[in-house]
Specification:
alpha/beta
Length: about 280
Amino acid sequence: MPEFILGARGHDFGRHDPETLFSSIGQAGFACTQLAFPKAVEGVKSYDDVTPALVERARAAAAASGVGIAVDGTYVELSYVDEDKRRAEVAKVLSQIPVAKALGAGCMGSETTNMAKQPGVTRKEAQEALLRSLGEILPACEEQGVLFAVECVYYHAMNTPEAVRMVLDTMASPNLRVICDFANYVGPEAASVDAQRRIWDKVGSWYGDKITAVHFKGQNFQPDGTLYSTSLEDSCVDYAGGFEMLRQMPQASLPVLREEAVPARAASDLAFMRRFAY
């Protein structure tokens, strides 16, 4: 059974210099983080601003605070069908592979593009674009010894356990991993516990051993199916079933990262997370 290491996204603490950012995360009680430089670090407007000196400051600040960097968050659109746009997004990832390596991050991570961003594009076309992007990213990751993790979201290009399995099988890369966000598997038609248990069974049996990080957030649905964020306590997500699945996995440890964290609620969030992770 993995040891679950509780953490939070860095940019939920606001934009700060690296020292303040990591100190704030650690003082809130979190042991690891997902770091996205353009979202969390002062002065970083694009990946071009992530200099070696800044990377070293972040690495040193993480070490001093005792907060591990579980995920180097690369927020990119891997499934753009427009080739010029897609290549520009891939270039962002390629530029950050040495950064992830220098940070000692557990992995790099990205979602796979909201279908609403490409009206008229079919999911099959978006998934084919995703495979092209990964085909350019993964050789560089393999060469530099960096893991790259993709995240399933029910309204994105890679939207179901079946789609995740297809991507993993097609790419067949030892450096391709999965970020498991329980909430992102759960659309309005799958909000019941029974429906979610069927999802967790597929995730665990098909690729549970490929999970390298877990996201933890609250959500629910309006009667018309509209998604909205909630506290962890008011969420429809079947955390108990998800962690029952994760406990069967062979990983020595797994970071569990609170998304949409409110620093003032860190103590109660951690208490809630510990109910499932310990």
